[in-house]
Specification:
Length: about 350
């Protein structure tokens, strides 16, 4: 299962480590508030993920009370550390507080940033290992986790090893802060151990990360929810891939393409878009580069284009493709449509 390589698909923004500094905190608490008070800031922007929107106004009030600073609450949900508020959304803030996400090491920060990873030790590792054992999962397992549950992972690994299983974890590439971490656009921590395991366990909640993991590795993926104590059956990867291959096959004769480029600092792959445009022209297609911030399906309605290739977050095409009026492909899928990559093995669009 050695990964296929293609120089075009390795194109990434220039190494962007640097810029304003950042600090990382496990939770909202006294250490964070003290750091904010010491920071000498004029105003904070507060960015929360979708799961915390219900509590966003209370959190903003808490930050104002604890720091004595004005707080601009970013209205839209935050997709990740790739998705910083624009200057307009930050509304004059000179520091940002990002809840629920870890820093992405190779993304330049637009302002001083305080990452609050919302770490949780919730879950009984022995009970969770017992659930895995009772379900008869394979002996050699890879384990990855969402950022919130990484602190539980060492104890869970020991408990799984006590059932006679071999557990593999690994660091990822320069986009991942921690070993065994899952990121929606990058599962290199899993890809590194895939040749040595028979299946993967994702430790966390929801379906977003397990779906991405199923696209990225050719192994069964079980989802272990540490809070609910439930284990979901493997995602049908073959069905996922077959659906994407049908999309690719349906646009092989498309002549007019739109190439989407995000302005988000952690998603901008303008260099890749230009390279894809050149590939399209070499194959007798037209290709228009379209630049956007937060993409809405209505933005693409009514355009005289046959299909799109999305260089921003790969999950736009994979998870939300059906919301758009024309087919939307990832860059590897686009090269499949042009005949420059085979349909098999399927290539997940990993952000490096």
């Amino acid at each position: 299962m050695a990964a296929r390589t293609d120089p075009l698909l390795e194109i990434a923004p220039p190494d962007a480590v640097g810029g304003p500094g950042h600090q990382v905190f496990p939770e909202v608490g006294p250490e964070l508030f003290e750091a904010l008070r010491r920071g000498g800031h004029r105003k904070l922007s507060l960015q929360v993920p979708a799961g915390l929107l219900r509590n966003a106004h209370d959190l903003a009030a808490q930050f104002r009370a604890e720091t004595g600073l004005p707080v601009a609450l970013v209205a839209r949900a935050c997709f990740g550390a790739c998705d910083f508020p624009s200057a307009e959304e930050a509304s004059g803030a000179d520091a940002s507080v990002v809840l629920g996400h870890a820093p992405i090491p190779n993304v330049r920060l637009p302002m001083a940033t305080y990452f609050v990873e919302m770490r949780s030790l919730g879950g009984d590792p022995e009970r969770l290992a017992g659930i895995v054992d009772a379900a008869g999962l394979p002996r050699r397992l890879g384990v990855v986790a969402s950022i919130q549950h990484l602190d539980l992972l060492p104890r869970l690994i020991r408990a799984l090893e006590a059932t006679g299983r071999e557990i593999r974890t690994a660091p990822g590439d320069r986009r991942l802060q921690y070993a065994a971490q899952a990121l929606g656009c990058n599962y290199t921590t899993a890809e590194a151990v895939a040749p040595d395991v028979e299946a993967f366990v994702f430790l966390g909640t929801g379906r977003f990360h397990p779906l991405g993991l199923a696209f990225a590795v050719d192994r069964p993926v079980w989802s272990l929810d540490p809070l609910q104590g439930t284990l979901e059956a493997p995602i049908d990867r073959a069905r996922l891939i077959a659906r994407r291959q049908l999309v690719v096959a349906g646009v092989r004769d498309a002549l007019h393409w739109g190439i989407l480029v995000s302005t988000f600092a952690g998603q901008n792959r303008g260099g890749m878009a230009a390279a894809l445009q050149a590939r399209a022209h070499a194959r007798g297609r037209t290709a228009e580069i379209l630049v956007f911030g937060r993409l809405d399906p209505s933005d693409l309605t009514g355009r005289a284009l046959d299909a799109y290739v999305n260089t921003a977050c790969p999950r736009i095409a994979l998870d939300d493709g059906e919301l758009y009026s024309r087919p939307m492909l990832t860059p590897p899928e686009f090269l499949m449509a042009l005949g420059e990559l085979p349909l098999e093995p399927y290539r997940f669009d990993t952000f490096h």
